[in-house]
Write a structure and sequence with these properties.
This protein has 125 residues and is α+β, with helices and mostly antiparallel strands. The protein is built from two helices and seven strands, in the order ααβββββββ. The protein has a four-stranded antiparallel sheet with strand order 3-7-5-6, with no helix packed on it. The longest helix is centred in the first third of the chain and has 14 residues.
């Protein structure tokens, strides 16, 4: 067997044994197990957004530093229809414009079951 053929065979074996793993679009983060981890989650202002009303449909998790304005991204811009924080101590502002201006609502663990097509940004409070 030639050196080139042997290298190709090794490359094929390596590629064949490679497993590609992508998270499920509805994957849930693990609940923080320590007090410090729970505090970090609250400080990050994590919230759960859904493409359909009543916390259904495709979903995504968002988070950011308290007080910082964050754009939801092109995929979710004007597409969030319900959202909640999943932690009663976390409050997040959802904003009409990407620079956290315009109209806004504040969500908590009770969330909003029906949001119109306007959310472009968020800020943890």
């Amino acid at each position: 067997m030639s050196v080139v053929a042997r290298k190709v065979l090794v490359a094929v074996v390596v590629l064949a044994s490679t497993v590609i793993s992508a998270p499920s679009p509805t994957a849930q983060p693990l609940a923080p197990s320590t007090g410090a981890a729970r505090q970090a989650t609250r400080d990050a202002g994590v919230f759960h957004a859904f493409a359909d009303e009543d916390f259904k449909g495709p979903d995504a998790w968002f988070g950011g530093v308290k007080g910082e304005c964050n754009y939801v991204g092109d995929t979710w811009n004007d597409r969030i229809r319900s959202a909640r924080t999943e932690d009663r101590r976390v409050k997040v502002e959802l904003w009409d414009n990407a620079d956290c201006t315009g109209g806004s609502i504040v969500i908590d663990d009770r969330g909003y079951h029906a949001i119109g097509a306007w959310v472009s940004a968020y800020r943890a409070t």
